[in-house]
Amino acid sequence: MAICSHNDWDPLEEIIVGTADHSMLPTMSKAVQAFSYAEYGLEELQVLQGPHDQRIRDEANEDLEILADTLRGLGVKVHRPRSVDHSKEFSSPDWTTTGWYTFCPRDLLLPLDNLVLEAASPGRCRQYESRAYYDYLTQQVEEGVEWISAPKPILLDDLYQVEDLSKPTVNNHEIIWEAPNVVRLGKDLLYQVSNTGTLKGYQWMKNIVEKRGYKLHLAEGFYFFAHFDSTVIPLRPGLVMFNGARLREDHYPQIFKDWDKIWITPEMMYTAPTQLPGGIPPCSPWIGMNMLSVNPNLVIIDKDQDVMRRVLEKHGIESIGLPQRQARTMSGGFHCQTLDVKRKGSLESYFGD
Description:
With 353 residues, the protein is α/β, with parallel strands linked by helices.
C-alpha cells in the first residue's frame, strides 16, 4: 500500500521501526558538538567516538523488537530498515566522518499525504543514513508516491556556532531541516527553527508544500535544541500536550490557541539515565514525552512515565507502557524510533481557512 499519512493521531496501519544494528558515536567534530553537545567543549567530547557498547545495542534492539511485536499485535504492518555498517568512513571535499545509526527513522523522512520529503540534516554523519530506506522508497515510487530530496548541504565549520546558546547552533547559511522540526496537522504544518532547522530550510519547504495546498506556519524562538516532538505533541484534533519547561501559557505556537492543552512540568517526568562515557547525555530528560500515537485514544509511551500516563487517561487516552532502556543514550523515544507511513484518514483542515 502506498504511503499516506497526514498527522500523528489517525489510526495507524503501517510503520517503520528502527534498529540499533551497527550504531555508532560518530567522528567528533563541531557538527556533532552543535547537534547534540553544545554545552560541552570539543576536548571533553573526544571520548564520545566509536561503536556503542554492545550491551547498549542489544538492549535497544530488544526494546525495538518488543515495540515491533506490540504494533503487529495491534494489526499494524511493520517495516524495518536495511542493515547498514555505520562504522565506514566517508568524505565530502571538506570533511570526513563515520555514520551514526538507523535508530530514528523519523528524523530524515517527512510523509505528507503521498509525498515524502527527504531531509537536509545538519549532521555530517547523517548524509547517507536514509539509504537504509531506499529499497522501500523506490518501491513506493512505483506505487505513485512522490519522493523529493532537499539539496545536500555542504556543512562547513562556519555553519555551526556554540558560543551563544540563546540562538540556534546552526547558522542560517544553508537549507537545513530534519523531519521532526515539522509538526503535521493535516493541511497545516508547523515548522520549528532550531539547531536542526534554519529559516532557509523553512523557505525551501514552503516553496514545495504550499503549492500542494498546505500552509506552513513558522515557530521561532520557542526551543532551540533540536526537534519539536518532545515539546509539542498533538494528540487529536482539539487537544495538544505541551512541554511546560519550554513553553508557557503566554508563550506557545498560537495555532493552538483554541485547542485544549495538557501541560507537562518537570516534576511530572521520570528522568531516564544516559549510559554514554562520562555520563554525557546526547538529549534531555524530556525524551520521555516522545510517544507514538496508535489512534486518537491510544498511545505507546515509556512504561516508567507513570504520571504522564495518568494525565493522558484523564483525557480519555489509554497508553501502552513499553521499555525504553536506551532512549536517552540513543537520543530517541518511540516517536523518533518509528515513522508512520500509512494512517487511515483523509487530508483535513483542523484550523479553518
